[in-house]
UniProtKB/TrEMBL annotation:
<protein>
    <submittedName>
        <fullName>Methyltransferase</fullName>
    </submittedName>
</protein>
<dbReference type="GO" id="GO:0032259">
    <property type="term" value="P:methylation"/>
</dbReference>
<feature type="domain" description="Methyltransferase">
    <location>
        <begin position="60"/>
        <end position="149"/>
    </location>
</feature>
<keyword id="KW-0489">Methyltransferase</keyword>
<dbReference type="Pfam" id="PF13649">
    <property type="entry name" value="Methyltransf_25"/>
</dbReference>
<keyword id="KW-0808">Transferase</keyword>
<dbReference type="InterPro" id="IPR029063">
    <property type="entry name" value="SAM-dependent_MTases_sf"/>
</dbReference>
<dbReference type="InterPro" id="IPR041698">
    <property type="entry name" value="Methyltransf_25"/>
</dbReference>
<dbReference type="GO" id="GO:0008168">
    <property type="term" value="F:methyltransferase activity"/>
</dbReference>
Length: 237
């Protein structure tokens, strides 16, 4: 499915009926051949925006998956670059692709770091956390950053109700809620649980000074809003 190298429909079904961790262990060998991997356009736009805010020392990719975020971290962080994820399968793929980075298996809600990094990023992972879990996640990233450190992540602007994207994401989230209501273990992955105002409020509550900038290379929606914004949370020096 998606490409000759991607997972089959059966493999995706097995993954979707597994836990999040087990599902990504199963998907890991073919993950980079699916649309779920963060696109190069988003990685490039994020890297360009962050290049104006450095220099940085050490960097960490939270919920790193197969390591796509290293395309952002390694050019910007001359110190060590680290990825953390709870899927051993995804980390295995990341380690093979970027053997010069450090890889840690762990839960982002209990990061095994303390004031160790100048830059933290995450890509496409917030949908794996329920809204009630997001404040604790942000507090852990805050704790892992050195004073003055920066937490950065892109979020797509919700598509307008008249767009196909609106109904696709709504349909996906409804299907996942039905699946999780009738099947265990749950598979937490939602597209509509990260409203921009709520994300900003949770960052502020964690202690960050927050601003969001449009990633202009990614274009605009039909209503003029940017398709994607880069949230920037700065830990006070």
């Amino acid at each position: 499915m998606f490409s000759p190298q991607g997972p089959s429909l059966r493999e995706l079904a097995v993954q979707a009926l597994s836990s999040v961790e087990r599902g990504y262990d199963l998907l890991a060998p073919k993950f980079d051949h699916t649309p779920f991997r963060t696109p190069e356009s988003i990685l490039g736009a994020t890297r360009e925006a962050l290049a104006e805010l450095g220099p940085f020392g050490a960097g960490v990719d939270v919920c790193c998956g197969t390591g796509a975020g290293m395309e952002v971290l390694q050019p910007l962080c001359p110190g060590r670059s680290t990825g953390i994820d709870f899927s051993a399968g995804m980390l295995g793929q990341a380690r093979a692709a970027h053997p010069d980075a450090s890889w840690v298996r762990g839960d982002a809600r209990a990061l095994p770091f303390g004031e160790a990094f100048d830059l933290a990023v995450t890509f496409g992972a917030l949908g794996h956390f329920l809204p009630a879990e997001r404040p604790a996640l942000f507090a852990e990233v805050f704790r892992a950053l050195r004073p003055g450190g920066l937490f950065a992540f892109p979020i797509g602007t919700p598509p307008p109700p008249t767009s196909v994207g609106h109904w696709v994401t709504l349909g996906f989230d409804v299907a996942m809620r039905v699946r999780n209501a009738v099947w265990r273990p749950p598979f937490v992955m939602y597209y509509r649980t990260t409203p921009l105002v709520a994300v900003r409020d949770d960052l502020v509550a964690a202690g960050f000074a927050v601003r969001a900038v449009p990633l202009t290379p990614l274009g605009r929606n039909s209503d003029g809003s940017p398709r994607c914004r880069l949230f920037l949370g700065r830990k006070p020096a």
